Amino acid sequence: MSAKSVRVRITGRVQGVWYRGWTVDQARGLGLSGWVRNRRDGSVEAVFAGTAAAVDDMLARCREGPSAARVDDIAVAPAAPPAGVEFRQLPTE
User: Fold this and answer.
1) Residue 38 among the catalytic residues
2) Catalytic residue among 7, 38, 39, 61
3) I want to staple 27 with a disulfide (CB 3.0 to 4.6 A). Which of 32, 37, 42, 53 is the partner?
């Protein structure tokens, strides 16, 4: 199995709609490590690391998000694998 690590920026109506909590639940369910946080510009940023298949699955899920969200765009870039093994929520930056 190949490993993959990406940093994503999700824009749209993604704050105040449980996007971060949903992301934590989804990522942990897929066995991913990394983190998610709100950005002051209204976007959500995350790093996902794990098997390529699990990361790709998470990216597909992020394009939909939780039911109250409206995702306009997702920017994806390669990233260094995060420290730690459990996916977590970080404070807004």
Assistant:
1) yes
2) 38
3) 32
Contact 35, 86 (CB under 8 A): no
Instruction: Provide the CATH topology of domain 16-81.
Output: Alpha-Beta Plaits (3.30.70)
Of the pLDDT bands very low, low, confident and very high (cuts 50, 70, 90), residue 71 is: very high
Average pLDDT of the segment spanning 49-54: 97
